[in-house]
Design a protein that fits this description.
The complex is a heterodimer of chains A (168) and B (491). Chain A is of the alpha+beta class. Chain A has helices at residues 2-17, 82-85, 148-159, 164-167, and strands spanning 27-35, 38-43, 47-52, 66-72, 75-81, 96-100, 106-109, 111-119, 124-125, 132-138, 141-146. Chain B is an all-alpha fold. Classes of the chains: A alpha+beta (168), B mainly alpha (491).
C-alpha cells in the first residue's frame, strides 16, 4: 500500500515537472459509455458536461424516452433515456447523464467506462441514416459514436405536438 | 412244498434222472412181461406142433407096423418084418410121449387113454396075423385079415388121431393168435414206450435245462452285475484310496508346515510377552505424556480464544477501511467528472484553455489511477476481510478441534490406563499361548507320525483296491463266459 501511494505521488509530481508534450496528430476526445449493456461512445465536443446521480423529476408525457426534467447549471433541462431511444427497455440503473453542448437536453445512460482520446484517422465513418456517427476500437473493444443531436431531433420529430393547421 | 424253480441243482438233475429211470423201468417191465407172454405162447404153439408131429409119428409107426405085417404075410420073409419090429418099440414110446405132452389137456388124455387099448389090439392083431403066417399059409392069413378086425381097429385109431389133431389144430390157431397178439403188444409197448420215454426224457431234459439255464443264468447275471458293481466300487475305492493317499501326503506336508508355524508362534508369543512388558512401560510413559498434552491443549485453547478475538477486531477494522475506501472512490469519481467537465470547458477556450485542458487531463488521469487504486485496494480489503472471516472460522473450528482434542486426550489417558491394564493380561495370555503352542507342537508331531502311518495304510489300501479291481474284472469275464455257456442267446 505504501508503495502504491508513493507511485501515485510520483506520477502527480511528474505531471507538473515534465515539459508540455509535442504536437500530436489531430485527436478527438470521447466518453466511453454503455447503453443497454452495449459499449458506445459520445464525442466530448457534443456535450457541455457530465453528471452522476443527477436528480431527475419525472413528468407525465407521451414521449417514452423522456425521464423528466433536471436542474443543471441553473437551467431546467429535459432528460431522455438514451437506451429507450435506441430501442432498449428502460432500466433504473441510468445514473450517468450528459448535457448537450447547447444545453437543450440531457441524455441518461447506465454505464460510464472512462475517457478515450482517439486519433481522427482511427475513427471510421458510419453508414448514413442512423444515429451513429462513427466507430473506433479502444482497449480491444469496438465502440459506436452516438450522434446525440440526431437522437434529439428524432425524438422531437416523433413527439412534437401537432398544430390545428397541420391537423387540417 | 417248494416250487420247481426253487429246487437245487442236484435235486433237479436227480429228479430228471429218476423220472427217466422210472419210465425206463416201467417200459422194461411191460416189455418183459409182453416178451414172456409171447415166449409162453410160442412155447405152447411149439408144444402143439410137437403133439401133432407125435400124432403123425404114431400113425406112421402103426402104418409101418402094418406095412411090415403085410410084407411078411405076402413074402413070409422075416426081413419084411423090420418096420413091424421097429414100430413095436417106438409106438409105445410115442404113445407115452403123447400122454406126457397132453397131460394138461383132459380131452386129449381121455382120447389117448381110449386109443391105448386100440393100439394094443392092433399090435395083437398084427402079431396074430404074423404068427399065423408062420404057422400056416398065405390064404389062411389073408382070410384072417379079410375078417376086417385090423381095419376096424385102425380106423378107430385114425379117427381118434384125427380128432386129436383137429383139437391141436384148433389150439394151434388160438395159440398162434395169442402169440401174434403178444408180439403186437410187445412191439407196441416197445415202440410207444420208447417214444414216450424219449418224449419224457426230452421234456424232463428241457424242463431241467430251461430251469437250470434260467436259474444259473440269473445267478450268473447276478454275479456279473455284482462283479461289475464290485469292479466299479473297487475302481472308486482305488481312486478314493489314491486321492486319500495324495490328501494324506498333503496333510503331512501341511502338518509339517503347521509344526513349523507352531514353533514360530511359540517364539512369537515369547517375543509378544517381552514386547508386552515393554509396552506396559511405554503405556505408563504415554499416560504421563498425555497428561502433559492435556495441559498444553488447555493453553492452546486460551491462545485460540485470544486469536479469535484479535481476528474479529481485525474484521471490524477492515470494514472501516472499506468505508473509507468508499469515500475515496466517490471522491475519485467526482474528480474524474470534474476533470471531464474541465476538459470540455477547456476545449471551448483559446490557448490558455488548452493548457488548462492539459491540466484537466492530468487530473482526470490521476483520478482514474486513484479509482483504479481504490478498486485494487477494495479488492485487497475484501481479500483481507475474506481471509479474516476464513481465519475466524478456521480458528473457531480449531477451537472446537482443541475441545475435541482435549476430550480425546482425556480418552487417550483413560485408554492408556486401560492399555497398561490390558498389557498385563496380554502378557499372561502370551505366556499361556507359548505354553499351549509348545503342547500343540508336541501334539502335531504325534499327528504327523499318525498321518505318515495312515498314508502307508492308504497306499496298501490302494494296492488292495487295484487287486480287487483285477479280480472283479476277471470275475466279470468269467460270468460273461458262463452266460455264453449257459445261454447261447445271451451270448
Amino acid at each position: 500500500m505504501t508503495t502504491r501511494v508513493a507511485q501515485l505521488r510520483n506520477a502527480f509530481d511528474r505531471n507538473f515537472a515534465t515539459p508540455p508534450p509535442p504536437l500530436e496528430p489531430a485527436r478527438s476526445d470521447f466518453l466511453c459509455i454503455r447503453v443497454g449493456g452495449e459499449p458506445s461512445a459520445i464525442a466530448l465536443g457534443d456535450i457541455a458536461s457530465l453528471h452522476a446521480d443527477l436528480r431527475v423529476v419525472a413528468l407525465p408525457s407521451h414521449a417514452t424516452e423522456l425521464l423528466g426534467v433536471a436542474a443543471i447549471r441553473a437551467a431546467v433541462v429535459p432528460i431522455y433515456d438514451l437506451g429507450v431511444a435506441f430501442g432498449v427497455a428502460r432500466t433504473s440503473t441510468a445514473r450517468w447523464t450528459v448535457l448537450l453542448r447547447d444545453g437543450l437536453a440531457g441524455f441518461a445512460f447506465d454505464g460510464y467506462d472512462g475517457h478515450a482520446r482517439i486519433a481522427d484517422r482511427d475513427v471510421a465513418a458510419a453508414p448514413p441514416g442512423g444515429h451513429v456517427r462513427g466507430q473506433f476500437t479502444h482497449d480491444g473493444q469496438p465502440r459506436s459514436v452516438v450522434d446525440l443531436r440526431s437522437v434529439l431531433t428524432a425524438i422531437e420529430t416523433r413527439w412534437r405536438p401537432r398544430r390545428p393547421a397541420e391537423d387540417q | 412244498m417248494t416250487r420247481f424253480g426253487d429246487w437245487t441243482f442236484g435235486r433237479k438233475v436227480g429228479s430228471g434222472f429218476a423220472v427217466t429211470i422210472i419210465a425206463l423201468i416201467v417200459i422194461g417191465l411191460t416189455g418183459l412181461r409182453s416178451a414172456r407172454t409171447m415166449i409162453a405162447n410160442d412155447e405152447r404153439v411149439a408144444h402143439t406142433h410137437l403133439v401133432r408131429r407125435q400124432l403123425t409119428e404114431l400113425l406112421a409107426q402103426l402104418v409101418n407096423a402094418e406095412t411090415g405085417q403085410r410084407g411078411f404075410v405076402i413074402t413070409a420073409k422075416d426081413e419084411f418084418l423090420e418096420p413091424y419090429t421097429a414100430a413095436l418099440v417106438s409106438v409105445e414110446k410115442t404113445h407115452a410121449e403123447l400122454r406126457r405132452l397132453t397131460i394138461d389137456n383132459p380131452n386129449q388124455t381121455r382120447r389117448i387113454d381110449d386109443m391105448h387099448p386100440l393100439i394094443d389090439g392092433k399090435l395083437a392083431e398084427l402079431k396074430r396075423t404074423i404068427e399065423l403066417r408062420r404057422a400056416s399059409t398065405f390064404e389062411a392069413t389073408v382070410a384072417l385079415i379079410a375078417g376086417g378086425e385090423g381095419k376096424q381097429i385102425m380106423d378107430k385109431i385114425r379117427t381118434i388121431i384125427t380128432a386129436m389133431d383137429q383139437e391141436e389144430s384148433s389150439l394151434l390157431e388160438t395159440r398162434a393168435r395169442d402169440s401174434e397178439s403178444s408180439a403186437e403188444t410187445t412191439r407196441l409197448v416197445i415202440e410207444w414206450g420208447s417214444i414216450g420215454a424219449i418224449l419224457l426224457t426230452v421234456i424232463v431234459g428241457w424242463l431241467i435245462t430251461s430251469s437250470l439255464s434260467t436259474q444259473i443264468g440269473s445267478a450268473v447275471r447276478h454275479i456279473q452285475s455284482s462283479s461289475t458293481e464290485l469292479q466299479a466300487a473297487s475302481n472308486q475305492q482305488a481312486t478314493g484310496a489314491r486321492e486319500q493317499a495324495t490328501a494324506m501326503a498333503e496333510i503331512a506336508t501341511t502338518i509339517n508346515e503347521l509344526l513349523a508355524t507352531s514353533r514360530q508362534i511359540a517364539e512369537s508369543a515369547k517375543r509378544v510377552s517381552q514386547i508386552a512388558g515393554q509396552t506396559a512401560t511405554a503405556a505408563r510413559t504415554g499416560e504421563t505424556t498425555v497428561t502433559r498434552g492435556h495441559e498444553a491443549t488447555t493453553t492452546v485453547r486460551k491462545q485460540v480464544d485470544l486469536i479469535v478475538g484479535h481476528m474479529l477486531e481485525l474484521g471490524k477494522k477492515s470494514q472501516q477501511v472499506g468505508t473509507v475506501l468508499d469515500i475515496v472512490s466517490e471522491l475519485a469519481e467526482q474528480t474524474n467528472i470534474l476533470a471531464i467537465n474541465a476538459t470540455i470547458e477547456a476545449a471551448g477556450t483559446a490557448d490558455g484553455g488548452r493548457r488548462f485542458g492539459v491540466v484537466a487531463d492530468e487530473i482526470r488521469k490521476l483520478a482514474d489511477r486513484v479509482a483504479a487504486s481504490t478498486k485494487e485496494i477494495r479488492g485487497m480489503v475484501e481479500e483481507v476481510r475474506s481471509a479474516v472471516n476464513t481465519t475466524v472460522m478456521a480458528t473457531e473450528a480449531g477451537s472446537k478441534a482443541v475441545d475435541v482434542s482435549t476430550a480425546q486426550v482425556l480418552d487417550m489417558a483413560t485408554a492408556f490406563r486401560q492399555i497398561s491394564s490390558l498389557v498385563g493380561t496380554t502378557t499372561d495370555a502370551a505366556r499361556e499361548i507359548e505354553l499351549s503352542t509348545k503342547q500343540q507342537a508336541t501334539a502335531v508331531e504325534q499327528v504327523n507320525l499318525a498321518t505318515t502311518t495312515a498314508a502307508g495304510a492308504m497306499r496298501e489300501t490302494e494296492a488292495s483296491a487295484t487287486q480287487i479291481l483285477q479280480t472283479a474284472s476277471q470275475l466279470a469275464d468269467l460270468s460273461t463266459s458262463l452266460i455264453r455257456i449257459v445261454q447261447a442267446k445271451a451270448a
